[in-house]
Amino acid sequence: MTLILDGRETAKEVRREVKEGVAAFRGRHGRPPGLAVILVGEDPASRIYTRNKARAAAKCGMFDVLHRLPDTTGESEILELISALNADPRIDGILVQLPLPAAVDARRILAAVDPAKDADGFHPLNLGRLVLGEEGPTPCTPLGILTLLDRYEIDLEGMEAVVLGRSNIVGKPMATLLTARNATVTVCHSRTRDLGFHTRRADLVVSAMGRPERITGDMVKEGVVAVDVGINRLPDGTLVGDFHFESVAPKARAVTPVPGGVGPMTIATLLANVLRLAGYRVRSSE
Ligand code: GUN
Fold first, then answer.
1. 221 an active-site residue?
2. Is position 53 annotated as part of the catalytic site?
3. Which of 132, 162, 183, 212 is the most buried (most CB within 10 A)?
4. Residue 9: inside a domain, yes or no?
5. What are phi and psi of 213, to 5 degrees?
6. Contact 262 CB / ligand 1 (< 6 Å)
7. Number of domains, the chain
8. pTM, whole model, 2 decimals?
9. What is the pLDDT of residue 47?
10. Is residue 98 lining ligand 1, measured as CB closer than 6 Å?
């Protein structure tokens, strides 16, 4: 029987725990943890994600603000907003939704966020900490995937893990986290010559390619754990992942569905990150 890794249910559990943590924080410090979300431009998917993130923060009792800026907004204006949020005592976490418009230097923007308020863990200092194995905010999607695997008691120790995609927000941090858990990690990307060669020998495949149903049943081994970060819309409007679910699921030991797998875990992990940052901030000012 294939185990379905239910991200919706697991995210609900995490959000319930965060909500309790938020109430305790509020009781102790007289204010809720606060999240500021910045969206620049009109990308339809980003509009939905940011709205969902701000709503989820409000639902667990956090203070939330959503700053929506037109895509003509200049870099200096975004930097000014970040600077104001860095100084705002109500705000513990700042998230800049990616992608940013092409005219904006995303690296400069992400580096301007106070590392102590970096809800996504995208600041170079925090990514450095991640590589060094030091504590710090960790990118939400990869950390959410680890939480999901942990809650289903999937032991990563010694696993052959293959990560598909090498982005700064999923692939690279995912590979780092899996290595820290003693998996043997291979990272594949657009220039990988023979994807199937790698995926067929993997105990765990995490795919963040954004290629609809690219990984088919014949490309995975019996008993694989398949984690799907892809959310791809087909011409007929249906949402599919990077895995061809119908052919991969029967061979797998465990799979994440799309939707309802990794997606909900990203938001729940963001909330957990903000609560943790709020705790660090009050402790460091005591
Ligand atoms: N765009 C796609 N995923 C993410 C994410 O986890 N955080 C941010 N800020 N932008 C994204």
1. no
2. yes
3. 162
4. no
5. 55, 35
6. no
7. 2
8. 0.97
9. 96
10. yes
